[in-house]
Amino acid sequence: MLYLFARSDVDGMLLYLPGATLILVLATALFTPAVVIGLGALALAGFLALQPFESSFQPVAVLGMMLIMASVVAVNAIIAHSRGRLDARRRSAERRVEALLEHSSDLVVALAGEGRIRYASPSVSAVLGRDPGRLTGDLVSTLVHPDDLVRVQGWIREVWSAPATETARTEMRLRRAGGSVLFVDAIATNRLGDPDVQAVIVSLRDIGTRRALEQQLSH
């Protein structure tokens, strides 16, 4: 389209290279280096094809513009390659974290405003018998035993108002999907001020065996 516009409009040639550069920049953010290089090659070929239609054809100036354009293509291809590597590393890190959480006996939930669950680790399925995806958006109170609910809600409010990265600890009972109760040790960290998290992170560890032993020793 740029080529056709440059051929049909008197001032089109003035906009060809800026337009081609803009397309390359956008392609750098979206596509692979191969696509960026391909678009750059097409832009250079189009620029050369337009020269016979220019009344003021100057070989030196054209060569200079082509070298500049080639440099722009090379830089954008390098940026696209670096972006691709960073994206691959990020996805790899996310998969590692997800795998660790899935095989961990601890539960991890991220609580957003009003105590709504923004994220629940895959281990929720094995430990509580609940689908982590379906818990997203639910209030954490749906997991807490009714007898502990008021105390836990007060504890969460304290964490919410605590300084950034400060932690708080408590014990509570959670309800499994089948109706049984799970005693857990809960550690919450205020990460609301972290722009990448913006939530309270709660780690929950099963302490049912310990509680049962304590009850046996107390009798």
* Spatial order of the strands forming the largest sheet: 2-1-5-4-3
Specify the number of helices.
Answer: 8
Name given to the CATH homologous superfamily of the largest domain: PAS domain
Report the β-strand fraction as a percent range.
15-25%
Shape: rod-shaped
Gyration radius, to the nearest Å?
30 Å
Strand-pairing-aware structural class: alpha+beta
Would you tell me which CATH topology of the largest domain applies? Beta-Lactamase
Number of strands: 5
| H/E topology pattern | HHHHEEHHHEEEH
The biggest sheet, with number of strands, parallel, antiparallel or mixed sense and barrel status, is: 5 strands, antiparallel
Identify the CATH class of the largest domain: Alpha Beta
Spans of 5+ residues with little confidence (pLDDT < 50)? none
Helix content percent band: 55-70%
Annotate the secondary structure layout.
Layout: H1 2-8, H2 12-30, H3 33-50, H4 59-102, E1 107-111, E2 117-120, H5 123-128, H6 132-135, H7 149-161, E3 167-175, E4 181-191, E5 199-206, H8 208-218
Antiparallel strand pairs: 1-2, 1-5, 3-4, 4-5
